[in-house]
Amino acid sequence: MGMTCVALPVMAAEEENKKDDAEVIVVVGSRAAPRSVADSPVPIDVISGNELMANGPSDMATLLRTVTPSYNVNAQAISDGATIVRPANLRGLSPDSTLVLINGKRRHKGSIIAFSGGGIADGAQSPDVSTIPAIALKQVEVLRDGASAQYGSDAVAGVINFVLNDNDSGGMIEAKMGAFSEGDGELITISGNVGLPLSDNGFINLSFESNQQDATSRSTQRSDAQGLIDAGNSDVRTPAAQVWGSPEISDDLKLFVNAGIDLDGDSEAYLFG
After folding, report:
1. E strand or H helix at 105, and its extent?
2. CA 98, 50, 173, 75: dihedral to nearest 10 degrees?
3. How sure is the predictor about 237, in pLDDT bands with cuts at 50, 70 and 90?
4. Average pLDDT, the chain
């Protein structure tokens, strides 16, 4: 009588299953706290107001560029109105392809039609987010994907929703100072926020921001202007005939209010802007 024994790799299979069930630990990467909505089919970043306030810049467009992926805005040195209302873009698309909301409602467009000489912003007219003080915000929600099926053609690049503070108590005040390494462009920003109750079931939240900034100049004298100076023309502007830099900003005051009151179980009256 013969006997055949077959050894099955039971222990090896169990060890392999344990390895598959083990959690994968990633060591490298960012030390920043996660802020993206993980269970959404599209990339949505939720940026708290405290995170915005922790950054150095006070201009909202610059703050968004600092904390938001794919959001780009640059300083416009000599671009007429675009120096003040700077065209910004999301995901490399035209500025007016990004829908801007405040408390879920559409923000009106700015008064400037951008013309930068062949850039993606040419002919674009987008909302001026720089008019929104950072201290007035509870959070910013950024949808970094096309949403035109839900919001229309002005959301091809994505959606940015500014959610205003709705605290009915407390407040804060902040002051910032800064300057460029060249010694010019000194900036002073003072901002504040206060929340007040509005009857027993409402609130009113008030915010302000005041900015003062000196002009900057990174200009060099143009060759044609220097030629006129060398020829004896004393009417040419010096040290530079054409200034390349940012203008002086004075009396830049931003005021924002957010108020709401519950009328009954299903109705609410609100005011913001």
Report:
1. strand 105-106
2. -40
3. confident
4. 83
Residue 122 neighbours by CB under 8 Å, 6+ apart:
114, 115, 116
Given a contact cutoff of 8 angstroms between Cβ atoms, the answer to whether 123 and 114 are in contact is: yes
Half-sphere exposure of 208 (CA within 13 A, CB side): 8
Residue indicated by tokens 């999301």: 90
Q: Which is it for strands 137-143 and 88-90: parallel, antiparallel or unpaired? A: unpaired
Instruction: Give the amino acid at 6.
Output: V
Question: Which bin fits 170, alpha (ψ -120 to 50), beta or left (φ > 0)?
Answer: left
- Where do the structural domains in the chain lie, given as residue ranges? 33-272
- What is the C-alpha separation between 273 and 269, in angstroms, rounded? 14
The CATH fold of domain 33-272: Ferric Hydroxamate Uptake Protein; Chain A, domain 1 (2.170.130)
Lowest mean pLDDT among 22-36, 65-79, 88-102, 158-172: 22-36
Q: Transcribe 162-228 into DSSP letters.
A: EEEP--SS-EEEEEEEE--TTS---EEEEEEEEEEE-SSSEEEEEEEEEEEE---------HHHHHH
| pLDDT number for residue 141 | 93
- Half-sphere exposure of residue 11, counting CA atoms within 13 Å on the CB side? 1
Q: Is the pLDDT of residue 103 over 70?
A: yes
- The Cα 273–Cα 260 span in angstroms is 12
**Positive or negative, the Cα torsion across 107, 110, 116, 118?**
positive
Q: Which amino acid is at 152?
A: G
